[in-house]
Amino acid sequence: MIVLGIETSCDETSVALVEDNKVIANLVYSQILTHKKFGGVVPEIAAREHLKKLPALFNQLLSETQVDISQIDGIAVTKGPGLIGALLVGVSFAKGLALRYNKKLVGVNHIVGHVYANYLAYSELKPPYIVLMVSGGHTLILKVEREGNIRLIGRSVDDAVGEAFDKIARLLNLGYPGGPEIDRVAKLGNPKAFHFPRPKMYDADYDFSFSGLKTAVLYEIEKLKKSGISELPTNDLAASAQEAMIDVLLYKVTKAAKDNNVDKIVLAGGVAANSRLREKLNEFASEIEFYIPPLEFCSDNAAMIARAGMELLKKGIDDGLMLEPVPNLFEMNEIIVGS
Ligand code: ATP
Ligand code: MG
Ligand code: FE
Fold first, then answer.
1. Which of 91, 165, 213, 258 is deepest in the core (most CB within 10 A)?
2. How far is the CA of 179 from the centre of ligand 1 (A)?
3. Ligand 3 midpoint to CA 189 (Å)
């Protein structure tokens, strides 16, 4: 089965063609440079950029792959969660194609897409497994008990971890997006130089809280400035803040795996690129198997949407022209894919 995937939920415009577990092509246009000067994603600009880029990206996909539209079995588009204006662009474009070429159309939950991205990298992966989804918009622990059943067992009650990286980077006058910058300078710093709080680390639940950490870093910076030092120890502050976030993430996700008798953990989302996180996974490697898909499938992309949509299409689902975006889709605790 060949599926066309379309993703426009946030700041990546992406189209892809996927055949079973094989990616024929996955084109991603990141708007990072456009939003950089504002220090974060501006929703209105994101929507307009998708509108500008999507048709050309789609044409490029067909010409590069030499796949004719008649070979496509269905279209899968992200319906949410995400920015409403951005989602509308993708959904409207997908509806136009479905109508013009008489194709089946399914709306895909973006989070389910992140879960199914794993099968593009690890076709042998089988439930049960736990997913640690860490991005700019989400920090979630998901339990995939059996094929098609995804349960939300933990989430951040405030900032997403990628958002915390970005905000702390801004406090330290590092660039945007802050995650890669903190990752870079933290390598030059001492993670034990400052002891920042590890909120909710030992709570019984699997939830997270990251907004307090940003405040703790801010107070530390103010204290240091008042003490009259000439230059902020940026590397040490970055390394220590990063360490606090990674300690909590790893402690809680490995606890979730152990409590649920699961020995496989899959990473998803842009923060999965963090080198310290990847390094520290090794401490648990004797008891838990970690799956880290290549970054192109970890961060937002249309291949994962196509792969998740394939499950729906196989079940005979066709949302047709009634499909509407749902910006706050991830309010539910359990998703049965294709039910
Ligand atoms: P979502 O997927 O939830 O809609 P998003 O598009 O912001 O949100 P991604 O594109 O998956 O998410 O990831 C971007 C986030 O990942 C940013 O917050 C960025 O700072 C963070 N990030 C990227 N690389 C690293 C890194 N090496 N270390 C830590 N964080 C990183
Ligand atoms: Mg993004
Ligand atoms: Fe995402």
1. 165
2. 7
3. 30
Q: What is the DSSP letter of 174?
A: -
Alpha-carbon gap, residue 260 to 250, rounded angstroms: 15
Residue numbers in the known binding site for substrate are: 133-137, 166, 179, 183, 274
Tens of pLDDT, residue by residue over 177-223, are 999 999 999 999 999 999 999 999 999 999 999 999 999 999 999 99
Domains of the chain: 2-116+298-336 (3.30.420.40), 127-292 (3.30.420.40)
Tell me the two tokens of residue 189: 């710093």
Tell me the binding residues for Fe cation.
Answer: 110, 114, 300
- Taking the C-alpha atoms of residue 299 and residue 267, their distance in angstroms, rounded to an integer, is 10
User: 312: alpha, beta or left, given left = phi > 0 and alpha = psi -120 to 50?
Assistant: alpha
Q: Residues 6 or more apart from 18 whose CB is under 8 A from it? A: 2, 3, 5, 24, 26, 120, 303, 306, 307, 310
